[in-house]
Amino acid sequence: MPCTSSEELKQIMMQARVYTQYGKVADYIPALNQADPDNLSVAISHPEGNCVSAGDVRMKLSLQSISKVLALALALMDRGEDHVFSKVGYEPTGDPFNSIIKLEISKPSKPLNPMINAGALAVTHLIKGESVQERIERLLYFVRKLAGNPSISYCEEIAASEFETAHLNRSLCYFMKQHSIINEDVENLIYLYTKQCAIEMNCLDLARIGLVFALDGFEPLTKEQLIPVSVARICKTFMVTCGMYNASGEFAVRVGIPAKSGVSGGIMGSVPNRFGIGIFGAALDDKGNSIAGVKILEMLSKKYDLSMF
Ligand code: GLN
Q: Of 169, 193, 206, 219, which is the most buried if we count CB atoms within 10 A?
């Protein structure tokens, strides 16, 4: 079994840490800019319940785009595959995650996939609930179950900071409202989406969630099927094809693990049928992925032959 020793993981983390100097913390959401670029933590969660970790695992990260996978799972459970994919496509894009350009030129006019911002907004729109508050509570309940941690919540400050500055996301929403992809009040949706992105946890929680996806939706400790197998598989497929933004192809070649990153510097990895990985390193590369986090995954994959291909 790979990486059973924390010492081994620590060595890999130390080798990757040197790359943080070449990265940059995201600043388009002002609150994210407060993160320490040198901080790095990593955890691997196994089905038997044991977890190995390295770095300061108490550090919390906001999920940002990692939340797109969780919202997709919930929306698929709420509405079913046909409904969800009538609003969002299946195809990867070579564009940055917040690009607006293909929204207009794709025919029919819908977001290309659920991992870019436009697609994620269309998916979050589908989360059921009587009110925005109920929708965020339902998502939080789901995330807490996946992580096995009832104390998980969102960070008010990060949510507010994004809400104030999310003009590009608002414009994606207005475009989609014009084309009947969404039909709710845009401010409502942005309010919900910014809270979703601000859900906070540490890399241990993230590794636990990664493990549930690795096991096709099965939570091995409580022995519950938290996500239907077919839904977990759809999510993992998008993690492979679009999870690392417009670096997903290179990542698939070099690492070959279903993974999803966020601009906070988090990466959730799911090694099929084996284990979950949670990483937090706020310094990002030019595509918006944790620069040291990608290195850690590359080293783990090579050392333990983890590529699924
Ligand atoms: N909340 C961020 C946004 O919508 C998430 C993007 C990301 O993590 N890439 O811009």
A: 206
